[in-house]
Specification:
The chain is an alpha/beta fold. It has 3 domains: 8-42, no CATH class; 54-77 and 198-395, Rossmann fold (3-Layer(aba) Sandwich); 83-182, Rossmann fold (3-Layer(aba) Sandwich). The chain is built from 19 helices and 11 strands. Strands 1-2-10-7-8-9-11 form a 7-stranded mixed beta sheet, sandwiched between helices. The chain has a 4-stranded parallel beta sheet with strand order 5-4-3-6, with helices on both faces. Strand 8 (240-246), helix 10 and strand 9 form a beta-alpha-beta unit. The radius of gyration is 21 Å and the shape is globular.
Length: 456
């Protein structure tokens, strides 16, 4: 198999029914064979029937009138939607001739899910890979990366110390044998989420409320997922885009740079691919609220029944979310209250992954709190979900607030040898439209170089 000639286009990831019928069928059959390369064609938000994989959260859980719709990432190959940007970055490098099979080793700077995605994609596309990440993340993430055959290169610290992984990546890139899938700075990540996640979000609200999106909420790690908001605003100009940060690491809001427990977000920077122009609000979520909320949904069956949720609803949600997914849900509840949304209004957010990589996080929670009986979970249910407040929300639509974010981006990326003139181009909407427009080129190029797989 030639790595250059195998895999879906952006349009096929958005609408897998555009694949040749035989390939779509083979890909669906391959879902039970995780390391079958045909799973590249399962990189999509769609279920087998073509509908978007989502959940409309019960209002007994959210406590708000607005409809909160969560796109579910756990059923992507490798268990997270981060596999999409990993594949997109690798395939663009392949068709550009910058990444060559048999010659280059792939670097994946990450705090977890993107690194898992890199390891997985490189396994399927026959590249050696090294995932560079902090040395204090959940053990499930390390195990998954090594299971896919990648090597680990660990840097000191936790989620908030991802800047050290960038420094390490830029150091290793000096070796001509390495190529980096640099999620924080390369635009395939932006293109994947603007096109595939953005249009999937737009479709996800069909038949719900007024069938429009009032707000899109996402916590930025790389800020790739936030790019979905750019597409949403094209369809619904009134839509508000909210970036969530850990209260303990409020870099975008006020330059804060503390440690926190929400793996996958809050990386002490304004990433290069973050389109500041379309971000309307920044909201802070306390890290322990996200972890406690996960505990409630995972182990609080009796509490949730008492609050009016059915057993079917409770069971269906137990495995759907990780810590960052709960963070996004809390952020959506806060924004529903802040924007005073009604039962006609829809908020969309995403769950990057599922519970499968957070068992150790809840074990740590149990050790820290000692008591996690139902009477404690009942209080957490109220505190985390029903009583979520509108504190720590910053409206950044005004020019002076945008300028602060552009200054933050310059501070973060000039040190990595990006020219100020290049960063200044990002102040124009045309810059982002031009980056997105490259999808047409890559769709055509991927398809023209692809040889349809037969016996893979």
């Amino acid at each position: 198999m030639n790595a250059i000639s195998f895999g879906p286009t952006y349009d096929e990831m958005l609408h897998p029914n555009k694949l040749p019928e035989a390939i779509r069928k083979q890909a669906l059959d391959a879902k039970n064979d995780e390391l079958n390369p045909l799973n590249l064609f399962n990189i999509t938000w769609r279920k087998a029937d073509g509908t978007v994989n989502k959940i409309v959260l019960p209002k007994q859980l959210t406590g708000v009138d607005a409809n909160i719709i969560v796109l579910l990432g756990k059923d992507f190959p490798s268990g997270s939607h981060k596999v999409g940007p990993a594949y997109s970055t690798l395939i663009e490098g392949c068709v550009d001739g910058d990444i060559l099979p048999g010659k280059h080793t792939i670097l994946g700077p990450s705090t977890g899910n993107f690194g898992i995605g890199v390891a997985y994609i490189c396994n399927l596309m026959h590249y050696d890979s090294i995932v560079i990440m902090p040395d204090n993340m959940s053990k499930e993430r390390y195990n998954r990366i090594e299971q896919y055959g990648a090597k680990l290169d660990l840097t000191p610290g936790t989620e908030s110390d991802v800047i050290l992984t960038l420094q390490r990546t830029h150091e290793l890139k000096k070796n001509p044998e390495f190529r980096a899938l640099a999620q924080f700075e390369l635009f395939p990540n932006y293109r994947f989420h603007r096109h595939v996640t953005g249009y999937s979000a737009i479709e996800a609200v069909k038949g719900i409320g007024n069938e429009r999106i009032a707000c899109f909420v996402s916590a930025p790690g790389s800020a790739g997922t936030l790019a979905a908001g750019d597409q949403i605003k094209k369809h619904y100009p009134e839509a508000k885009i909210t970036a969530l940060e850990p209260y303990e690491c409020s870099t975008l809001m006020n330059g804060g740079r503390g440690q926190h427990r929400i793996e996958g977000i809050g990386d002490k920077m304004c990433t290069l691919i973050h389109n500041i122009l379309t971000t309307d609000f920044i909201a802070l979520i306390k890290d322990d609220d996200a972890v406690r909320g996960l505990k409630v949904l995972r182990d609080g069956t009796n509490v949730l029944k008492e609050q009016g949720l059915s057993k079917t609803q409770i069971d269906s949600m137990r495995d759907l979310f990780g810590v960052s997914g709960i963070c996004n849900i809390i952020g959506a509840i806060k924004m529903a209250k802040y924007l005073r949304l009604s039962s006609d209004d829809n908020i969309v957010t995403v769950a990057t992954d599922g519970f499968d990589r957070y068992e150790s996080v809840l074990e740590d929670l149990d050790k820290r709190y000692l008591e996690t009986e139902d009477f404690v979970l009942k209080r957490w249910f109220s505190d985390v979900f029903i009583e979520a407040d509108v504190k720590y929300i910053d409206d950044v639509r005004k020019l002076n607030k945008k300028e602060r974010l552009f200054t933050q981006k310059e501070s973060d990326w000039l040190k990595f040898n990006y020219d100020k003139s290049y960063l200044d181009q990002m102040r124009s909407p045309e810059f982002w439209e031009n980056e997105y427009a490259k999808i047409t080129f890559y769709n055509d190029k991927i398809k023209s170089l692809r040889k349809e797989p037969k016996n893979v």
